[in-house]
Amino acid sequence: MTATKNQNAIFIIGGLFFIYGFITWLNSTLIPYLKLTCELETDVQAFFVTSAFYISYLVFGAPTAYILKRTGFKKGMALGLAVLGIGALLFIPAARQRSFPLFLFGLFVQGGGLSLLQTASNPYASILGPMESAAKRISILGICNKTGGIVSPLILGTVLLAGTDNIRKQAEQTANRAVREQLLGDLAGRVVMPYLLIGIALILLAFLLLRSGLPEIEMERPAAGTIDDATDAKPSIFSYPQLVLGVVCLFVYVGVEVMAGDAIAIYGQSEGMTISATKYFSSFTLGAMLFGYVAGIVCIPKIFTQQMGLRVSAILGLVFSTLAYVTAGYSAILFIALLGLANALMWPAIWPLAIDGLGRHIKAGSALLVMGIAGGAVIPLIYASLKGHAGHPGIGNKLAFYCCVFPCYVYILYYAVVGHKLRPKPVLA
């Protein structure tokens, strides 16, 4: 592929990554919004927002590999956009009925669309150039992703959460059920127009992507007799330890990314802060991630390797999570937001390290990695359960957060130092 075509492809994929970020980080706004709108009693229920969204990656991970084999990267990404648009449109009947299960189903469908998009676009970006600089390319795309993530809570937070502290007080103080229903119904209606526009835009983009000049990339089988050919002949995708350990690494990484981005508002509210004060907290985390991506673009691979970037990132995660635990108030919030800086280079580094050497199995390997994104469904729920709620004190907000994120960074450090180096033994003729 020529340099010009590479640049055009990166531009188009960058636009898709912006969409990923915009949709994914809407969850940080939806958690407090749906907790109030749907009258949820606990934070555990509220975190079903992230669980419904991220569990779809586990459910759809394997089917996406089959779909991509049939459609190729380009048509697969267009299909993913269309599914994502349908999921957004499901918010309209969910809002009119104020149905939390229907909201969750819409999020599940959106996650299914994103799982297809992620399975196609991440390896696509990795193989557009040398594998040793893949983290740099994915960092560029990460800037697009996190820019979308920064913008979405600023826009939707303003639309959906404006005046919610007063609405909550009025709803709690009124004894008239009809008045309460009217207040919450009006609040639910705020989501209709934004998601109608999002759904239409996504379906339109799916059509435009099909008509675009984005080239299809065919995965070639390595030449006979090479080491890659030997590993390519392995009977199972699970024969590649760098991939299997990478899936676990991606699982815990997405978990801590969601904790730093989506859970930061709930963390602040558990520390006594209002919804109005916490509604933009996730943008601080994403701003820190954006800075980390810029550092990755400048430094990889000229100053340090993607492996070293992952090691440093894991160490920063251990340091910042510990500082968040031993501090309080806005100081703790600052260190949680700085976890965004620690997390920034993890996805760009883990992905190419995990798929390196998979040969023609790269689509199946990518699908397996996408299934690891389900960590975003599990770890926040563990946090919400551990920290407790009315009638169930748990272990407290700060300790619950620390117990969820610190061990994850320990494992990421292991993968950065040892796990990614492991390879299957060559199959001898």
Model description:
The protein has 429 residues and is mainly alpha-helical. It has one domain: Up-down Bundle (Growth Hormone, Chain: A), CATH 1.20.1250.20. Helices cover 77% and strands 0% of the residues. Helix 4 packs across helix 19 and helix 16 packs across helix 18. It is globular, with a radius of gyration of 21 Å.
CATH superfamily: MFS general substrate transporter like domains
The chain-level structural class is: mainly alpha
> What order do the SSEs take from the amino end to the carboxyl end, as H and E?
HHHHHHHHHHHHHHHHHHHHH
Net shape: globular
Number of strands: 0
In the residues, how many domains can be counted? Answer: 1
Largest sheet: none
Low-confidence stretches: 220-232
Helix content: over 70%
List the helices and strands and how they pair.
Elements: H1 3-24, H2 27-37, H3 43-46, H4 48-89, H5 91-97, H6 100-126, H7 134-161, H8 164-173, H9 177-189, H10 192-211, H11 227-232, H12 241-261, H13 264-270, H14 275-278, H15 281-299, H16 306-326, H17 329-343, H18 346-355, H19 362-371, H20 375-387, H21 397-417
Helix pairs in contact: 1-6, 1-7, 2-7, 4-6, 4-10, 4-19, 4-20, 5-6, 5-10, 6-19, 7-15, 7-18, 8-9, 12-17, 12-18, 12-19, 12-20, 12-21, 15-17, 16-17, 16-18, 16-21, 20-21
Structural features:
429 residues, mainly alpha, Growth Hormone, Chain: A
What is this entry, summarized?
With 429 residues, this protein is an all-alpha fold. Helices cover 77% and strands 0% of the residues. Helix 5 packs antiparallel against helix 10.
